[in-house]
Specification:
The complex is a heterodimer. Chain A is mostly beta strands. Helix content of chain A is 0%, strand content 52%. Chain A has no helices and eleven strands. In chain A, the strands form two sheets. In chain A, strands 2, 4, 5, 6, 9, 10 and 11 form a seven-stranded mixed sheet that branches. In chain A, strands 1-3-8-7 form a four-stranded antiparallel sheet, with no helix packed on it. In chain A, a hairpin with a 3-residue loop joins β4 and β5. In chain B, strands 2, 4, 5, 9, 10 and 11 form a six-stranded mixed sheet that branches. The chains are: A mainly beta, B mainly beta. At the A-B interface, β5, β9 and β10 of A face β5, β9 and β10 of B.
Chain lengths: 115, 111
Amino acid sequence: KAGVTQTPRYLIKTRGQQVTLSCSPISGHRSVSWYQQTPGQGLQFLFEYFSETQRNKGNFPGRFSGRQFSNSRSEMNVSTLELGDSALYLCASSLGTGGMNTEAFFGQGTRLTVV
Amino acid sequence: TQLLEQSPQFLSIQEGENLTVYCNSSSVFSSLQWYRQEPGEGPVLLVTVVTGGEVKKLKRLTFQFGDARKDSSLHITAAQPGDTGLYLCAGRGGSQGNLIFGKGTKLSVKP
């Protein structure tokens, strides 16, 4: 059974540009969550999608957005990139969501560097 | 806001030593998960503890969930260089049950 696949693995962008990251969850998983990981802040929750609907959102500005498709694949978009957006972006998939106590399985992440 | 505090933040030990890392909160969690993350990779799930007082063993790793379900610990016996990594605890919290992570314990095991 294939794991969570994130593309691309590495990305270098210039300030002001926008970027789209992709995540394919484990087959059969309907929940996809996104996290930003930086050395200083650790793993911070961005948002969660379940059945194409955003279920929950963390405390990030509106420049960060996402969506989920009918096949559960998800994308996140960051517009008007800032230097501080440089981070490892992680996607996690779960069977269910919220209070169902389902375990999250992570992809390898996309390393975004903003110059 | 539910927070998970992990300690110590850094730990450097020699191969063969034992160690314990802690994950504490003032809030109750319905479950806690432990992950290990290697540089440049995503976290890998090690275990989920659900019941207060529960103890789970995974080879040389022992995980314990506090009776009040507010804290957890990870004990490693006879650490090996392959145990090196960032150990993260996470609990489902918030109004809609998203995973909340501690900042992790960075473990280095020297041969």
